[in-house]
Design a protein that fits this description.
Blueprint (H helix, E strand, L loop, with lengths): L12 H6 L18 H15 L10 H4 L2
């Protein structure tokens, strides 16, 4: 299970402390305030899929192979 915090505040401090050993952070430039939440979810989802070698995903959409 994954939890994503608000764009403005992140996750609550007590939740971070409780699961500190399972917490990850997306690196950003220091001048940036936050990432859009949907972009953050995309980054993490991609990394999860990359680490399992995209197992079970189609390489090409069936839509394009039928044309």
């Amino acid at each position: 299970m994954f939890y994503f915090g608000k764009e403005t505040k992140g996750l609550p401090e007590d939740l971070l402390q409780k699961y500190i050993d399972r917490t990850i952070r997306i690196p950003m430039r220091p001048v940036l305030r936050s990432l859009n939440l949907s972009n953050s979810v995309c980054v993490i989802t991609y990394e999860i899929l990359r680490q399992i070698n995209f197992d079970g995903l189609q390489e090409e959409s069936e839509y394009f192979s039928n044309k």
